[in-house]
Structures are given as structure tokens and as C-alpha cells.
Write a structure and sequence with these properties.
30% of the residues lie in helices and 18% in strands. It is of the alpha+beta class. It has one domain (5-140): 2-Layer Sandwich (HIT family, subunit A). It is globular, with a radius of gyration of 17 Å.
Length: 142
């Protein structure tokens, strides 16, 4: 896997505002926050996308994400937040090392960032296509 800024942060070559670290994960404040408390959670394992991550690192992320969400909520006073994770350039991934964003959401403020904005362009799930697609996904699970 190519070197990323997160690899350098993990090794301590680039400083960060660390909020949590264990044997498998690291969490720190985003330097370009969408709102106060915007936190990144990364595995120490170098994997570009979630599907390339080991079960062990995925489980470690799953254990720590709820704890970190509670901590961000408590520290910022918010009751709403988004957890965002992108995979691949077409999905808006900018750093090719798995990472989750915990983004506190605040009421809109004229003077500052309030959190993530989303356009949800939903389509329609056709029953026959859905049946076939669900079967295909199920048979592809390893």
C-alpha cells in the first residue's frame, strides 16, 4: 500500500491532536473539521478501503467507534452526529487509508461549521431486481 499521511501520523512523524489510541486503532481531531469535535478514527493496519481490512482490525474499529461517539457527544454537547466512511475515489475518499469520520451535527449557525450536509438521491428498489441482487450478494459472502 502506498504511504499516506495517516501512516506518518501512526508512526509519530506528523503530529496530531490524539483523543484515543490502543493496539489496533488511533483517533484524532480532523485538521479540516466540518464542525467542532470532528474526529477521525483509523486502524493502524494499512488498508486502503474497508473491504481490504482484516477481521481483527475491523472488530477493533467496531469496538471503539461507539465509545468515541459517546465521548464526542459529551465533549461537544451535541446530541446528533454523522459517522462517515468513504471507499475509493469515486466515493469521495481522499486519503487511501481506511478512516471513519465522527462529525458532530449542530443547529445551523451563520458564523461557523454545523456539520455534514447530505443530498440523499434515493431511487426505487424493483422487486425482481432486488431478489436477484440480494441472492447475488448473499452468495458472494465469504
Amino acid at each position: 500500500m502506498p504511504e499516506t499521511i495517516f501512516s506518518k501520523i501512526i508512526r509519530g512523524e506528523i503530529p496530531c491532536h490524539k483523543v484515543y489510541e490502543d493496539a489496533h486503532t488511533l483517533a484524532f481531531l480532523d485538521i479540516g473539521p466540518l464542525s467542532a469535535g470532528h474526529t477521525l478514527v483509523i486502524p493502524k493496519e494499512p488498508a486502503p478501503t474497508l473491504d481490504a481490512l482484516s477481521d481483527e482490525s475491523a472488530a477493533a474499529l467496531g469496538r471503539v467507534l461507539p465509545r468515541l461517539c459517546r465521548a464526542v457527544m459529551k465533549a461537544t454537547g451535541t446530541t446528533a452526529y454523522n459517522v462517515l466512511q468513504n471507499n475509493g475515489a469515486d466515493a469521495h475518499q481522499a486519503v487511501f487509508h481506511v478512516h471513519f469520520h465522527i462529525i458532530p451535527k449542530f443547529p445551523a449557525r451563520p458564523s461557523g461549521a454545523s456539520g455534514l450536509g447530505i443530498a440523499w438521491n434515493s431511487g426505487k428498489l424493483e422487486p425482481e431486481a432486488a431478489k436477484s441482487l440480494a441472492a447475488s450478494i448473499s452468495s458472494s459472502i465469504q
